[in-house]
Amino acid sequence: MHKRFLLLIFLGILLVLAGCGGQSADLGVVKVGTNAEYPPFESVDDSGAIVGFDIELMNAIAKEGGFEVEFVNTRWDGIFVALASGEFDAVVSAATITDERKETVDFSDPYFNAGQTIAVKKGSSIATVDDLDGVRVGVQLGTTGDIWTSENTQADVVRYDEITLAFQALAQGDVDAVVNDGPTSADIIKANPEMGVTIVGEPFTDELYGIAVNKGKPEVLAAINKGLAAIKESGEYDQIYNKWFGTE
């Protein structure tokens, strides 16, 4: 009986230790792809570091979810193919949750609600989506702005690898408007007043951003959702949001 009792104690200790080293603790470093050309969500600062709302949010999620993050700056075009093929474990890059993308990757719970807006030069006659027909509209290749404008208007869609290039084209008169996520457009305009660009009308789509995860990594998805829920409950999410978007 004495030996059996000691054996039960030993097994109990093993179970406790196993519980302490739970699923998230075994994740180690999670490789996260991002296209750092989309301020204020992600960009490269003067020191070469990747910064932004998404980056700070992901670091906070990782801390609560029990894993570390290695960010990889990559092109937007093909980022989901790279994720699905295993080049990354996850992608955080102002990515809208869509049914089409869900076919190849999983998504976390939504972490941001953004809509598409129209940016034009001040004084432009363009005011609504109905005014986009027949004009040159700049978009970032492969984004929901590209998809929506192509499918819902008769605009001459001009695609750029980076959204900042689309805004440069707008400032130079090479395109008549830019369709893009509202928060990012507002940030670019605020940082570059010399462009003489403004946003017209209200957002005309309702879009939810999510963190994309390789379908073969359910443990990563679970850890991300756990961390996201924790920072929303603690108020840390609000602090990060206010820092990057200037709300009170």
Descriptive notes:
It is a single chain. With 248 residues, the chain is an alpha/beta fold. It folds into two domains: 131 residues, Periplasmic binding protein-like II (D-Maltodextrin-Binding Protein, domain 2, 3-Layer(aba) Sandwich), CATH 3.40.190.10; 90 residues, Periplasmic binding protein-like II (D-Maltodextrin-Binding Protein, domain 2, 3-Layer(aba) Sandwich), CATH 3.40.190. 40% of the residues lie in helices and 23% in strands. The strands form four sheets. Strands 5-1-6-15-7 form a five-stranded mixed β-sheet. A five-stranded mixed β-sheet has the order 11-10-12-9-13, with helices on both faces. The longest helix is centred in the N-terminal third of the chain and has 19 residues.
Write the layout of secondary structure elements.
Blueprint: H1 2-20, E1 29-34, E2 37-38, E3 42-44, E4 50-51, H2 53-65, E5 68-73, H3 79-84, E6 90-91, H4 99-102, E7 105-107, E8 112-114, E9 116-121, E10 136-140, H5 144-152, E11 156-160, H6 163-172, E12 177-181, H7 182-191, E13 197-200, E14 207-209, E15 212-214, H8 218-234, H9 236-245
Parallel strand pairs: 1-5, 1-6, 10-11, 10-12
Antiparallel strand pairs: 2-3, 3-4, 6-15, 7-15, 8-14, 9-12, 9-13
Helix pairs in contact: 2-8, 2-9
